[in-house]
Amino acid sequence: MVEEPSYWQDRFPTGRRLGVLIGGPAAYGGAALLGHGWAACDVGVNASANSGTLLLFVLPFLWVVNTFLFGLVFAVVSGSTRLQTVLGVLAGLAAVVVFAWFVFAWQGTPADSPDPRCPGGVPIWWPSWIPT
């Protein structure tokens, strides 16, 4: 007797495959945002050390988390119709963007930054209507 694949067996692998494709550029964008925040606030030893940290640790971490997060949200939201699939993709993208914002707010805005370009640890180019 052949069993029908369960909801999670069907949707989560598809979401993970899409998450790998979407999570890579999103991870690069999140790491670049973090790097620009560090550069603006003069965080770290120097630009070379910051780049090494971003490439060796932050970028792979973001890619793995983005892939899993997108896959999970896609599996929960998407369904059998085309509209539900599109909503799953959009919800997954929104989750990845919110995670990138969280990482920037957590690690990209040092509260003890002495640099006058970062009052309160927030770079001056960061929009004031987005909380950090």
Structure description:
With 132 residues, the chain is mostly helical. The chain has one domain. The chain has 3 helices and no strands. The chain has helices at 7-41, 47-77, 82-107. The longest helix has 35 residues, at 7-41. The chain is elongated. The N and C termini lie far apart (54 Å). The model has no long low-confidence stretch (mean pLDDT 83).
**Uncertain stretches of 5 or more adjacent residues:** none
| Mean pLDDT across residues | 83
**Main sheet: strands, sense, barrel:** none
Strand content is under 5%
Into how many domains do the coordinates divide? 1
How many strands in all? 0
Class inferred from helices and paired strands: mainly alpha
Shape: elongated
Rg: 18 Å
The succession of helices and strands, N to C, reads: HHH
Distance between the termini: 54 Å
The helix fraction, in percent, is: 55-70%
Number of separate helices: 3
Q: How would the blueprint of this fold be written?
A:
Elements: H1 7-41, H2 47-77, H3 82-107
